[in-house]
Specification:
The chain is mainly alpha-helical. 74% of the residues lie in helices and 6% in strands. The strands form two sheets. A two-stranded antiparallel ribbon has the order 1-2. The protein has a two-stranded antiparallel ribbon with strand order 3-4.
Length: 273
């Protein structure tokens, strides 16, 4: 089976799971994002170990769980569990735990443990928050907003992939990612704006202006997110971050654009709502 065929099959399955989780309910989306967060952290920490770093996996994953579990319990069982105080002390437990590791790189271990949470778990949590809006004093789940976000992101990625393969000549950032081209970037941008225009006709929770601004944010920061992940991989001399997604690589390979774009999209929502 060719890499392109694997990529298409994996993409169809992944898209179906993601859309299904978003549309089914708020808690299924949260469960899926928690799973992606945990798998992404394990992948990130494994890559760190390849570079002779010893991140504290358990505390990093616990921190990710603290972000999502209270909302999952609230949505599924109407159990309101306040774990925010744990988010205050967990980072400092990483410092204390390092006293007992006997590592020769304590600061590096602490830094990369926290970096995994900042790079993976926090953006996924902010991604979820883009679907929540305050309607008449109540936080309401709006799946169409987060679906629109994903459709634009996927359009940008798909357009860039095929335009780059067929038309790519001029390198976008050769030092970091030799395969990325300006032609691919333009192709992704055009398809993303086309999808955003179509979305605005059906997903009227946001105006056309909002969708177009969000598209600009996603295209720019998503591309930078892809380059950031390529930078990480080149620094430790690997091609893919993992093999869990045939044709796509690992969790970090598949969600790199979302990790960097989600905080900026959420920031736009904070400033415009």
């Amino acid at each position: 089976m060719s890499n392109l065929t694997q990529r298409i099959i994996t993409g169809i399955i992944g898209v179906s799971i993601m859309i299904g989780a978003i549309l089914f309910s708020e808690y299924t989306l949260l469960l899926l994002l928690l799973l992606i967060s945990v798998l992404g952290l394990l992948e990130f920490y494994r890559l760190c170990e390849n570079d002779s770093i010893q991140p504290q996996k358990a505390i990093g994953i616990l921190t990710a769980a603290v972000l999502f579990v209270p909302l999952i319990l609230s949505s599924l069982l109407s159990i309101h569990l306040n774990l925010v105080p744990l988010l205050i002390i967990l980072p400092y437990l990483i410092f204390i735990r390092e006293l007992y590791t006997k590592s020769t790189k304590p600061f590096t271990n602490i830094a990369y443990t926290l970096l995994g949470v900042i790079y993976i778990s926090v953006p996924l949590f902010l991604f979820y928050l883009t679907s929540v809006n305050n309607d008449a004093g109540n936080d309401t789940y709006h799946p169409k907003i987060i679906l629109g976000y994903l459709f634009i992101l996927w359009a940008s990625d798909t357009g860039a992939y095929f335009a780059g393969r067929s038309l790519g000549r001029h390198k976008l950032f050769e030092r970091i990612s030799p395969k990325k081209t300006w032609e691919g970037s333009v192709g992704g941008t055009i398809l993303a704006f086309l999808v955003a225009f179509i979305i605005s006709k059906y997903y009227v929770d946001l105006s056309l202006k909002d969708w177009l601004v969000i598209t600009v944010i996603i295209v720019v920061t998503g591309t930078l997110g892809d380059l950031v992940e390529s930078l990480f991989k080149r620094s430790i001399h690997i091609k893919d971050s993992g093999e869990i997604l045939p044709g796509h690589g690992g969790i970090l390979d598949r969600f790199d654009a979302l990790f960097i774009s989600a905080p900026f999209v959420f920031f736009y929502f904070l400033m415009s709502r």
